[in-house]
User: Which sequence fits this backbone?
C-alpha cells in the first residue's frame, strides 16, 4: 500500500481535510498540510475510525440517535354496513 495524502483520504472518507488533520494530531501524527502523506498503518487506523464514505463524525464522538417522531396512528377504516338478511 502506497502512502496516501491527507486530502485524498479526507475525500474518500467524506470529511474535510482540516478535521482529518486534527484527528491525526490527536493520534500523535505530525502533518503540516493537507498535502502531507500518511503511512499505511495510520491510514488503516483512520479508515477504522471513520465510517466508509459516511461523512459523519467518528463513532466515538457521534451523539446518540434520537427516536424518530412517531406518526399518529391511522384512523381505523370505516366498517362496511352489515348486509340485511
Assistant:
Amino acid at each position: 500500500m502506497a502512502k496516501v495524502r491527507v486530502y485524498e483520504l479526507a475525500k474518500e472518507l467524506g470529511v474535510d481535510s482540516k478535521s482529518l488533520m486534527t484527528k491525526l494530531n490527536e493520534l500523535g501524527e505530525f502533518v503540516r498540510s493537507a498535502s502531507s502523506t500518511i503511512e499505511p498503518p495510520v491510514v488503516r487506523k483512520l479508515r477504522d475510525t471513520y465510517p466508509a464514505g459516511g461523512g459523519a463524525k467518528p463513532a466515538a464522538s457521534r451523539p446518540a440517535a434520537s427516536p424518530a417522531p412517531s406518526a399518529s396512528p391511522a384512523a381505523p377504516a370505516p366498517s362496511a354496513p352489515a348486509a340485511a338478511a
